[in-house]
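Troubleshooting log. The previous structure file for this entry was overwritten by mistake, so regenerating from the original sequence record. Sequence copied from the archived sheet and checked twice against the printout by T.R.
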Amino acid sequence: MRQCISNCWCSVWARFLIPKFYFLLFFRGSLFRPFVLYSPMSKSVGASFSRRMPDHVTEELVAVLSSRASFEFKPLFDIILLNLRERNAASGGEEMLRLRVYEKLQGLVGQGAVNRTVTGITKKYKGVGPRMATLRAEMKVLRNEWAKKVQAKAAAR
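Regenerated output below.
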């Protein structure tokens, strides 16, 4: 068990109350002595698995927002939901899909690919032409690479 950085009362109770696989990190000079628990079972932040596969939601967002029209979220979501159902790609329930679409939309706003205009309580979203064209080209390349991987995997079997 790792000892407390400063010699104080907390190291006494930590030995008895906290299981052995947790490590305590105490901060010196703090009024309340905050601590962080680390477990060897938890995964580190940098060791995440990322699989770059084509994202249907982002593809539909880019396709719809590439038009010159601006949309509020509800009509935009209705269009995307219909398009995804048409492609048989709407899974996980409507509310989960609504959250995913909103998250992807905010990501596009953060990238600068979509402009958000707030008027009173209404928010309208409109795609930025050059950035949408770049995104569409990137997704086309990604889709082609993914198709090649799938074909190679099928041929290996």
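Residues 129-156 form the longest helix (28 residues). Archived copy saved in two places this time.
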